[in-house]
Design brief:
Layout (H helix, E strand, L loop, with lengths): L1 H17 L20 E3 L2 E10 L2 E8 L6 H10 L3 H5 L14 E5 L2 E5 L9 H12 L9 E5 L8 E5 L5 E3 L6
Parallel strand pairs: 5-6
Antiparallel strand pairs: 1-2, 2-3, 4-5, 6-7, 7-8
Helix pairs in contact: 2-4
Length: 175
């Protein structure tokens, strides 16, 4: 009678071993929104500027000047990708501008005065502008970017940068 019990015990031990650690498969889970704000790398401060790849917008980090980094980020966006960034396949859909993007921090977000009509911009260009502004340190954890269009006196376009790097409508009361 001992022999069958040993065999059963051996089979159970082998089955448990082959079953693994007991943790079942899980589906992919979102990791959360992209990093925002002032990044520190080896003691240096960085800007985050959004450019375009075939898969959508993509943030790049650049050295940042001391102090306010909102206007330098907008200027870097208008200057376009560097040669090294272009070699990696990054492009910009933000059109050339005769005037800079004027950017100011507000409570709960950023105000941008752009030199174009938003309706004339490709959607990826709007996402580049909005996400670059939203990524600036001090803009908040989920900043509202209010975009004022050139030549229009109407209300601004309130938008946010979502976790995929896309400009989406924002509820002004939800900041």
């Amino acid at each position: 009678m001992r022999q069958p019990r040993r065999r059963v015990a051996a089979i159970l031990v082998a089955a448990a071993t082959l079953a693994g650690c007991g943790i079942g498969d899980t589906d992919a889970r979102p990791a959360g929104p992209p990093a925002r704000g002032g990044l520190t790398e080896a003691g240096s401060r960085l800007l985050r500027v959004y450019f375009v790849t075939p898969q959508g917008t993509w943030p790049v980090s650049r050295p940042a000047p001391a102090g306010d980094r909102l206007q330098p980020a907008m200027d870097a966006l208008l200057a376009g990708p560097t040669a090294a960034e272009r070699a990696r396949g990054l492009v910009s859909q933000v059109p050339a501008a005769t005037r800079p993007i004027r950017a100011t921090m507000t409570r709960g977000g950023v105000e941008l005065r752009v030199p174009w009509l938003v309706s004339d911009l490709p959607p990826m260009a709007v996402s580049q502008v909005v996400c670059t502004a939203a990524a600036v340190p001090g803009a908040g954890s989920e900043p509202v970017v209010k975009v004022f269009e050139a030549g229009l006196a109407g209300p601004p376009w309130p938008v946010r940068c979502d976790e995929s790097g896309t400009a989406v409508p924002a509820q002004l009361g939800a900041s």
